[in-house]
């Protein structure tokens, strides 16, 4: 079925509010999913996969493991990027603003693909940004996102195949690396050692393609599977209050 | 917008003053009518299939300047006992949709299967607005019978209820699968102003309501039936019932509301700074004031408080005219507005602003394209905490002034009911549901909590920034984004504690409705209000005729037969 951007965003906000996301977090989480879906980056599929893990408990806050002027290592405590991506990117942005360049590593973080919107937002703020992470299921896949400063909010998203010998250490399984800079960033500095020289990306989605997808979704609506829509509507009921004669008085009836 | 000395937010954003605003030149109905009159939109019925009871399907083809649209109505039988203006109703006399382009038979069938269901139906991104309306039980039959008998409806009756239909919800912006506002704004310039498509839907409903009444009159008495006179027809508006559902909108779209207020205040400031006072202006103001007085004299509503407010307006407008007679040599209107602020009620002060804006279309009207806002609340993570503290103290002093230790300051909570997600207000200490209070609706309390945490945190981290504070206090993310975003806006947040026991939500409704451009506020409780839309507006049939943008404060037509 087709839904509009506005109604799926409103529904997701309500769902996340019911799932005890914090104020400010549930709006960002809804925006991250809807933006990814509109850009053709399977935001709703990521949501479907994450729903079983989202409970009615406030998600764990980020924990700082190490921090210097130009570096930070944070532990997401096995939480979702839906809860922490904003703060991670805000930290990276703040440090880069002060020091021209910084890197942040996030450990134990799920749904990392949904980080892409916040990385794109960094470009809107006039900052260049690169992020990459190893795929947890397919260990020889590396996801790379690059946003140029003032890039109209659309990044370049690529995946690379790593050599079969590249083992995925436990510490890498759910981690994500971000570099933020006032100067252009290039993938070679960071992932050149991970991929063979001259390797072309296995997939490469350019900003124009993301923009086209976004525009088409805005014009025609977003497709969502009916069972997911029904599931989300049921979850959204959590925030509603039962009706009674007394409550009807509170509506002026 | 050129910068002019604007009134201070502490004055303008008080809820009491926002609840005293009146329609004005830049209200959305006024802008819409100017646009379709100046651009001479062509609007004709392409389908008019009503049976002898007035039931059936009608489609109007709307050729606007840039695109063609279709306005579709479905008229169905509704028993008197099922007629209900509340959002929880499930059947209506009329349901309607505004769609993009011409519609083929299949599309109309698809709409017929869904539009009458309203919230329970689904439409597609080709639909811009979905709405419904119920007949005025008092007026509709009366008007049809009078026309059938060859008479015009009596003005005195129309003064009490100046419409045949009352719309109970007008949905847009992507609800139920409709086109998103982003699509309309970027691709359909004819409706690329806030609520333009929604207002147009009500305008078309008004036109249909008279056509249907005339159709029924002719069916009932083909030999004696007459059409409605133009004066009477213009006096027929569309009724509207607006409830709490509109209130959270104002809190959740603070940048948009701040923009609307900024535009209105800019228009006022332009008039006060640049408006030359000539004898002609004084004369026009006198005519307008007389018209406004008469309008309020003709406005009869059951609510005693509103009646008193209308009487006050009538009296103080007379006082204004008297004052002007004694001050014919004034060179600027600031003397009048200063006198009004000192001596007259807020309702009158704001009505005078509306009147003054009418005198200077050249200074005011170009602002109508500035009503949109990019709504992107954002955190400024690098802001030093001390700066954030100062920002709160400077822009949210009104919130810090509330003593939340007082039970009355937290007496109310806003929530969504399981009945169609209708927003409702409960009493915190005696009703269930406070655990599901709508977040961030009570800005004042959230600001207070944030400020207290911030002051405590600053003692330990005096040189820290916002992002590190947020890592320690993630619960504050929403309110900090709000404060930092609205701190940059000219007018910022509405300055009211909406959890206070004495809060009058109807003031929020009145504020928004004034921007829509409605008249004849008829409060039914502190939670909902009836009003009239498009009363006095030019008719579809008058498009192409000379247009005088003077339909503010409509007056009842003289009785003729």
Kindly describe this structure:
The complex is a heterodimer of chains A (253) and B (561). With 253 residues, chain A is of the alpha+beta class. Chain A is built from ten helices and eleven strands. In chain A, helix 4 (81-99) links the parallel strand 3 and strand 4. Chain A starts with a strand and ends with a helix. Chain B has three domains: 28-243 and 531-542, no CATH class; 254-371, no CATH class; 385-486, no CATH class. In chain B, 43% of the residues lie in helices and 14% in strands. Chain B contains 22 helices and eleven strands. Chain B has a nine-stranded mixed β-sheet, sandwiched between helices. In chain B, a hairpin with a 5-residue loop joins strand 1 (42-50) and strand 2 (56-63). Chain B is globular and about 90 Å long. The mean pLDDT of chain B is 95. Chains A and B meet through strand 1, helix 1, helix 4, helix 8 and strand 11 of A and helix 7, strand 8, strand 9, helix 20 and helix 21 of B. Strand 11 of chain A pairs parallel with strand 8 (412-417) of chain B.
Key terms:
heterodimer; A: two-stranded antiparallel sheet; B: 561 residues; 3 domains; 43% helix
Give the helices and strands, then pairings.
The complex is a heterodimer of chains A (253) and B (561).
Chain A: E1 2-3, H1 5-18, H2 25-38, H3 43-50, E2 63-67, E3 71-80, H4 81-99, E4 101-110, H5 116-124, E5 128-134, E6 141-147, E7 156-161, H6 170-173, E8 176-181, H7 188-191, E9 203-205, H8 207-220, E10 222-223, H9 226-236, E11 240-241, H10 245-249
Parallel strand pairs in A: 3-4
Antiparallel strand pairs in A: 1-10, 2-3, 4-8, 5-6, 5-8, 6-7, 7-9
Chain B: H1 9-12, H2 15-18, H3 28-38, E1 42-50, E2 56-63, E3 68-75, E4 94-100, H4 105-114, E5 127-135, H5 140-148, H6 155-160, E6 163-171, H7 181-187, H8 196-220, H9 230-235, E7 237-242, H10 247-252, H11 254-274, H12 279-298, H13 304-326, H14 334-343, H15 346-359, H16 361-364, H17 385-395, H18 397-400, E8 412-417, E9 423-427, H19 443-460, H20 466-472, H21 477-486, H22 506-516, E10 519-523, E11 529-533
Parallel strand pairs in B: 6-7
Antiparallel strand pairs in B: 1-2, 2-3, 3-4, 4-5, 5-6, 7-11, 8-9, 10-11
Helix pairs in contact in B: 5-8, 12-13, 12-15, 13-15, 17-19
